[in-house]
Write a sequence for this structure.
């Protein structure tokens, strides 16, 4: 099994990157940008400078803007090209615990709910907290859910939580600004029809879900992975794949952020998540996951949720990914 860790950074090599590099059964891909400090490649780590990325010959690289988190897409393509079976998506400020490990892509503990949005963080802590991208108007809603034993359900993507400075929005940080450690509870899977945002900071992707890795480049930095996550949930259901949540396997020593700038970048999350979910629910999808991604971004561009240039970027990424992969959809 070929397992890759994809990170993008503009900083010197972090403790998190070094720890991941020390894992001999994983290979780390660090995607640089124009502002990046070069990191020395090694047996377990490949650093891709902007020049390296251009030399890969990907269609997507010719179109992708610099100084944007969406350059991480180049790392996904590199992993797919080199035969990845598993891709772990993380950031340079996440540090793995000793118990960090690859979960099995099945789960028989299912969250059952009639609600469209479920705050999964509530199953791992009694604190008032919500994930970045969760609709603000849903935060104070009563949670009407149940966790039941089920037949093992296939997981397309695992969201592992992060301790100390978990993935929350700027509103939470501006109000509470405190560290949190999640309870070490069993893994759970979110049933079809219920959404919870998930991120690009600590997620495991199996091969059948690779088409949904695409990060849009014409949204803000704080919305790109949230939008991807909502799209991935809807499209994974077409393959009987699910989103799972598991205990924290990393802790975050967060890089410096301007919280008011984060807030500004997150306005798209606050205003657009529900209309986008409604749009996704109205679409007629194909059996091919790559086609479905293209249909999704074409529609989102036509409705003004992303810019029209997103369609060309998405098509280029799809063409590159198709040329590298034989991803089974069954």
């Amino acid at each position: 099994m070929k397992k890759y860790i994809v990170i993008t950074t503009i900083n010197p090599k972090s403790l998190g990157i070094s720890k991941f590099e020390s894992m001999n059964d994983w290979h780390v891909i660090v995607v640089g940008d124009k502002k990046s400090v070069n990191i020395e490649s090694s047996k377990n780590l490949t650093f891709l400078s902007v020049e390296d990325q251009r030399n890969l010959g990907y269609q997507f690289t010719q179109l992708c803007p610099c100084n944007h988190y969406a350059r991480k897409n180049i790392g996904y393509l590199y992993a797919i090209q080199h035969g990845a079976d598993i891709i772990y998506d993380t950031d340079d400020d996440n540090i793995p615990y000793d118990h960090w490990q690859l979960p099995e892509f099945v789960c028989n503990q299912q969250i059952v709910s009639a609600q469209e949005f479920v705050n999964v963080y509530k199953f791992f802590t009694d604190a008032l907290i919500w994930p970045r991208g969760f609709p603000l108007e849903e935060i104070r809603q009563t949670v009407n859910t149940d966790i039941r034993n089920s037949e093992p359900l296939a997981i397309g993507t695992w969201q592992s939580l992060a301790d100390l400075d978990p993935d929350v929005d700027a509103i939470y940080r501006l109000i509470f600004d405190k560290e949190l450690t999640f309870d070490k509870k069993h893994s759970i899977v979110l049933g079809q029809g219920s959404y919870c945002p998930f991120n690009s900071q600590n997620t495991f992707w199996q091969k059948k879900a690779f088409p949904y890795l695409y990060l849009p480049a014409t949204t803000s930095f704080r919305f790109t992975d949230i939008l991807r996550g909502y799209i991935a949930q809807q499209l994974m259901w077409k393959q009987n794949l699910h989103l799972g949540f598991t205990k924290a396997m990393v802790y975050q020593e967060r890089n410096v952020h301007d919280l008011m700038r984060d807030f500004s970048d997150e306005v798209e999350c606050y205003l657009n998540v529900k209309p986008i979910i409604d749009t996704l629910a109205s679409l007629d999808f194909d059996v091919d996951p790559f086609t479905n991604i293209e249909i999704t971004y074409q529609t989102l561009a036509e409705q003004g949720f992303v810019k029209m240039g997103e369609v060309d970027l998405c098509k280029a990424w799809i063409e590159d990914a198709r040329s590298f992969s034989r991803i089974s959809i069954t």
Observations:
- The beta strands are 3-8, 27-31, 45-48, 86-90, 94-96, 106-113, 145-163, 188-190, 202-206, 242-252.
- DSSP finds nine helices and ten strands in the chain.
- The radius of gyration is 18 Å.
- The chain has one domain: 3-324.
